[in-house]
Amino acid sequence: MPRKTLFTPSEREALTAFPQEDHDLVRHYLFSDADLALINQRRGKHNRLGFAIQLCYLRYPGTPLPPDSEPPAHLLSFVGEQLEVSVTHWKRYAIRKTTRREHLSELINWLGLAPFTLSHFRLCVQHLLATSVQTETGMVLMRALLDYLRQKKVVIPRVDVLERICGEAITLGTKRVYRALTSELSDGQKEQLDRLLLPRNQQGQTFINWLRQPHGFPNAKHVLMHIERIEYVQGLSLPDGLEKAVHQNRLRKIAREGGQMTPQHLRDFEPLRRHATLAAVILDTRATLIDELIDMHDRIMASKENVARRRHAEQFQSSGKHINEQLKILSQAGRLIQTARESGSNPFDAIEASIGWQTFLDSVKSAEQLSQPEFDHLALIIDAYPQLRRYTPAFLDTLELKAATVSQSLLDAVNILRRLNRTKARRLPEDSPTDFIRKRWASLVFTEEGMNRRYYELCVLSELKNALRSGDIWVRHSRQFMDFEDYLLPLEKFHAQRSSQELGVAIETDCERFLQQKKDQLASALRHVELHAAGNSLPGAVVTASGMRITPLTNSVPEEAENLIKKVSALMPKVKITELLLEVDRWTDFSRHFTHLKGGQPASDRVMLMTAVLADGINLGLTKMASSCPGTSYSKLSWLQAWHIRDDTYSAALAELTNAQHHHPFSRWWGDGTTSSSDGQRFKAGGRGESKGHVNAKYGREPGSMFYTHISDHYAPFHTRIINSPARDATYVLDGLLNHESELDIEEHYTDTAGFTDHVFALMPILGFKFAPRIRDLSDKRLYIAGKKSDYPTLGGLIGGEANFDYISLHWEEILRLSASIGKGAVTASLMLRKLGSYPRQNGLALALRELGRIERTLFTLEWMMDIDLRRRVQAGLNKGEAKNALSRAVFFNRLGELRDRSFENQRYRASGLNLVVAAIILWNTEYTSQAIETLRRRGEKINDELLSHLSPLGWEHINLTGDYIWPNQIP
């Protein structure tokens, strides 16, 4: 059986590649006087050239010159120019192998290098162990190995030797991980883990498959079923802290592998590997189950509140006529009383004569009923209490909760409800905590007879939902609801990195200097805009006493550009989507990134891989794709999807296409690759997928999910994420900018109104991005200044107050720590922004970020008022994203464009597959658009280069997206 390979041919080539850029050639291969003196001791030009080339090889990459190999032409040229020797002399040096060996030995001694030996092999394996227990990624290990050999001044051996070292380190590291996961397991716990592979019921479903099946629609029945699974996992009593025994990257990988394997495969493992894999699967499953349980409760509470809100609105509407009648009577009575007082007559006689005393009393009674606190929609949520009680006692008992000081009262209330549920007591203790009860709930909870148990419990459940979101209360063993502190860089590591200036932030880290810079920027920008506003010379903008008005930009395409677009469209070849994908893969080899989960090898059947990717991208699914694509079957596609298609392989393949688009010569007409935009596109959840969709009031009452995509100015969609919650778009803006794998270096980013919050404005410049959202009703957003409002009389109506610089200074350390944690990938920006923006958390960090965000938003608004080119750039960037959404909608046409997958993982694959197919279409269109322009020019047409920016690679009329999906018999 052949040895497992860690590197693809292209990666092996990259490991031994020589620098191409001039500055890298100078850095590595510019000879010093000592170098030249040594080289010039050789007799003959061919020996001097050969000796110098061997010196270059040993300097970098650090390997000997391979026998019978030809150095890169650019290296020969660079060395020859320094020695004033023609590169043609190389041929003579290559003849004598003895001379090569002698020169190599002399250079090794002169450079103080040690030849690679078996003892070095063992030392390298031991050195890589610390890295191999964290990751199995071959390139990460290889970089660490090369750094170690260079540091130790050891001659670097052949790539196959390096690969064996990495493979040996991975093997030993994996065994060490297995031992770490199993060393504290008792024999009884190991037996319980083995039992997971046995059938649970007569249908043959194993315990492990039962634990990992998707939850159904959020309701009491499915919550209780979920709780049953969590209780089973908790009953396994795995050792505390086992999930921290190994690096999280390895733990997740082992869990993914175990999740893809059948119980039969797991049973065939030797005991150490089997028990470690099952332990990893259970740890991952436990966190997933807990997070899903909280999400289900969140959605149920939101659903019940929405029902109550609708009923309240319906009742209010239906009683509108009655309310109006009572108001008329009471208004008339009020007038009569006023007239009677002025005239000194008896008001009661006036009411009796004009309205009738009984009518007046009936009206007062009706008004009392209408004005009772139960008129608030929260009062109507009491109707959902019996349904909630079906699962909430078990829900509260299942979660292991801890609280910050600000929410300790709420946690005490949860503990009281737990005790009441266990003892079946009905009345609340007199000392029940009430500090967490907000004003809206107070009128319902506190009655003349005492606290209302039902409303108290509903209030606790509602506030618990909010506290879990914000992080004021956290859950043991959860991933999404951990302690806020656990997401951040450890304090010791943060202070060490700050001292060594390695935080990775793009701002001045000294608070005093940073704030002074912001004050100076504000003062300068305000004076500049005030001067132009007073002189009514703002470009396309006017400031008046009532506010600010900015003239909308118009989209105008020259007639010549319209004609060019038509000509190019006519020259675009007709192509099937299958042919398009294969052709793009021939250009980029993006399919090589879909590696096997365990072995790391690319898929052997490229056509089958493309078929599975296309099934995701066009929303057809594997079952229907198998029947629409001759030569495939569901089982083959399912196996390939399980082992080769996942989030990281999709990301790597997308990065390959993004890089190809970025480097395509024609892309320069659309931008320089430093700007981007992001936007969300909603897809309805249908069928079994409804249980995963969320209701967002912005889009009506039907559940659905959002595909949030980042697109570069080259039209390349370089990141996508499925948002399966009603969270604001702004929460996810930074994720795409920080976590994409492409070569793009984004400097400026655009969003629409939904993409901004003050917290995002604060974090963007800290992490090195200029943020430029197109904000609807920008004139309603106040400016915040450093100084007196009276200094800017023309802008006075726009100024909301003075920014709180002292608050920023007070929490500066926390701001830096949060930003560094996000920038270094310790936690995602979206997770932290959700917590910081969640009600009711109003902690110091959230408020300080808000103040900083107000300053950055003020600076942006002032620039927006002065810079019409900025407005044009933002509009152009957002237009590209909106046009890309139209293409995505056309591609994702099957199943009525609805998400019907029960598994959130499969829904993520739908989003990733769609983005990959769209990226392939865009790259293909870019290439053939370029060819069409060249064709027109060959025909003698004069094309103005300024018109090329109006062309777009987003058309699909020439692409056949429907029908049977037949692949060419032979892959080019």
TrEMBL record:
A molecular function (GO) held by this record is: DNA binding
Q: What is the name listed in the Swiss-Prot or TrEMBL entry for this protein?
A: Tn3 family transposase
Query: Where do the Tn3 transposase DDE domain residues begin and end?
Result: 579-965
The DUF4158 domain is annotated at 6-169
Biological process, per Gene Ontology: DNA transposition
Provide the alphabetized UniProt keywords: DNA recombination, DNA-binding, Transposition
Q: Which family does it belong to?
A: Belongs to the transposase 7 family.
What Pfam families does UniProt report for this protein, alphabetically?
Answer: DDE_Tnp_Tn3, DUF4158
Q: Where is this region: Disordered?
A: 674-696
Source organism, top-level taxon: Bacteria
